[in-house]
Design goal:
By secondary structure, the chain is mainly alpha-helical. The longest helix is centred in the N-terminal third of the chain and has 26 residues.
């Protein structure tokens, strides 16, 4: 009797679907590890163990720890990158309020706040993490906002607007300075939006 069963796939070979699933699992675990432990206390070995794979496989898909962090940050910070489109979604003279409200929405939402906290804390405490954070924010957020302003000193304007919002996020959500930490978000938005607008479009 002839055996018509399909030949077995080699043990060491993965289908494209399996490879994609493994990569996604490693990245999800990396986000959790960086969120819970921060950059310095997270290791490639720890990510591999939590994902149930060998460390070599983590390096294969992502490279160095810094590159893994960059991939995790890019995914976790993706909602914030929508800020570059907020400037275009309506009149330029009200972009400050739209941008401020969107950033507060991210920080006030527990789901998006957790990874944002991990990213900011890692960037503050580690030079490598800070370099990754600056690279992503500059390329994905500030530069693209500046391109849409079409005003003198556009890059400086975008940087100042971002600095205003990052500063308030640090004081409210990371350092938790009162009365900012417990103030009503709408009250803060009302105060900050005109300042952000001024950075973006004032003469």
């Amino acid at each position: 009797m002839t055996d018509t069963a399909a030949p077995r796939r080699g043990r060491g070979r993965r289908t494209r679907s399996e490879a994609a699933d493994t990569r996604a699992r490693i990245l999800a675990v990396a986000r959790e590890e960086f969120s819970e432990r921060g950059y310095e206390k997270t290791s490639v070995r720890g990510i591999a163990k939590a994902a149930g794979v060998d460390s070599a496989l983590v390096h294969h898909y992502f490279g160095t720890k810094e590159q893994i962090f960059e991939a995790a940050v890019e995914v976790a910070f993706a909602p914030a990158f929508q800020a570059r489109d907020i400037v275009l979604d309506g009149p330029l003279d009200s972009a400050g309020e739209r941008l401020t409200r969107m950033i507060f929405g991210l920080w006030e939402n527990p789901v998006t706040r957790a990874p944002l906290l991990a990213i900011v804390r890692s960037a503050v405490n580690n030079d490598s993490a800070a370099a990754v954070f600056r690279k992503l924010v500059a390329a994905q957020l500030l530069r693209r906002i500046a391109e849409q302003l079409d005003l003198p000193d556009a890059e400086l304007r975008a940087d100042l607007a971002a600095a205003q919002l990052v500063g308030i996020a640090m004081m409210r959500y990371v350092i938790k300075i009162e009365p900012i930490a417990s103030a009503d978000p709408e009250r803060l938005i009302a105060r900050l939006a005109p300042v952000v607008q001024g950075h973006l479009t004032s003469p």
